[in-house]
Amino acid sequence: MRPLHAAPGADDMETMARAALRALPPRFGDHLADVVVRIEEFATVEQLAAVGLDDPWDLSGLYEGRPLSERSIWDVGEMPAIVTLFRQPLLHEWRTTGVRLDDLVTHVVIHEIGHHFGFTDETMHRLEDGEEF
What is the pLDDT of residues 54-71, one digit of tens each? Predict the structure, then answer.
């Protein structure tokens, strides 16, 4: 059992991330079965460089893979897409903003999954707000 004021661990954060995925409209679920969700403490130097960042505190989530909108039925043997949440930056944002951690995790998961579908930022915000489109 975790002490009362201890920060949620990686397993807790993964549970929140999976709950966020399950809450997405059903039409998205079929396209998420092969997406891997990982929790890491911080982004690697390579991950930071891939998005043009230097400070690991600046990256709370990352989508690695080819968006569905860029795939073909002829693509075979492709590695699964990966959504990584970075625990320490998320915990820092949680502590400094007062936003509920599960809401923050949901926000980041939706943003990263949006990349999987090739969505614009506007569409991601609409999805997060529960709007149909």
Answer: 999 999 999 998 877 666
